[in-house]
Write a structure and sequence with these properties.
By secondary structure, the protein is an alpha/beta fold. The chain folds into two domains: 93 residues, MurE/MurF, N-terminal domain (Udp-n-acetylmuramoylalanyl-d-glutamate--2,6- Diaminopimelate Ligase, Chain: A, domain 1), CATH 3.40.1390; 216 residues, UDP N-Acetylglucosamine Acyltransferase, domain 1 (3 Solenoid), CATH 2.160.10.10. It has four helices and 39 strands. A hairpin with a 5-residue loop joins strand 21 and strand 22. The protein is flat, with a radius of gyration of 27 Å. It starts with a strand and ends with a helix.
Amino acid sequence: MKFTAEQIAGILEGTVIGDPNIEVFKLSKIEEGTQGSLTFLSNLKYTPYIYTTEASVTIVNSDFVPEKPITTTLIKVDDAYEGFSKLLEYYNQIKLNKSGIEQPSFISESTKLPDNVYVGAFAYIGDNVEIGDNVKIFPNAYVGDNVTLGDNTVIFSGGKVYSDCILGESCVVNSGAIIGADGFGFAPSKDGGYSKIPQIGNVILEDYVDVGAGTTIDRATMGSTIIRSGVKLDNQIQIAHNVEIGKNTVIAAQTGVAGSTKIGEGCQIGGQVGIAGHLVIGNNVKVQAQSGIGRNVKDNEILQGSPSFGYSDWSKSYVYFKNLPKLAKTINELEKKVNGNNQN
């Protein structure tokens, strides 16, 4: 798909400096730009590349004035980074603008599809599913019985939504993600084994929730596992049964949240964090990567370590952690001097 500089400027409400008819058909980093590519310059440390890039079109801030000759056509906008992001979103909408029902696919007779929907080949849609407008279900996706999918929600290839789960509007379930698998519920038996506890609840994703590839969100034992509006989950995250995550919280890859823990709004949780079960994490909490949370956390705390403690205390303590061999050597030398003086 090709666009002219003039067309791109129209989308971004920008101004073309150079050839308005030059065409681009791919994206690139400014230092790797080639003929036919579109790039952008927002970080000043990359400014030297604008004089050498072979990109056909470059989006720049409106106050940018070249100090040397350039060959790339410029599109000036108020904020180059924001403009490029807007263009990526526009491009993505076009790329994913699929519609219709591909075959072979299975759609239960009890499920009614709106006119504006996409169902990819080999997708499965169970009984009594409610599907909103402009929903896209890509090839090899699975949607179980009694599921609700809100308007503009997307299930990518290999995504699975188990029975009775509810997804709001504009949610994204990426490839390999599983919504509504059984929670980890087992009771010890007298013979030393474990008996499975039926998991009869569901998962609720409110609006604008993104679920990364390979992430799993377990259904509740009873009631619902709830992911509130605007939550963004990275790849390969485990959310256990009956967890609740507050709106606009973001969680990075490989984090695990154990059962029945409640996480507040606006939290930022780094990668490979472990959070124990039945805890309450406050609002606007920040947890550094690879931390272990084993206690309740108040609003606005910043934590690091395993087990975690206050970030400023951790930073101060780390100075001593890394110098422990030197400190031990110093203490040993002092002990020898003290013992020598005592002998005298």
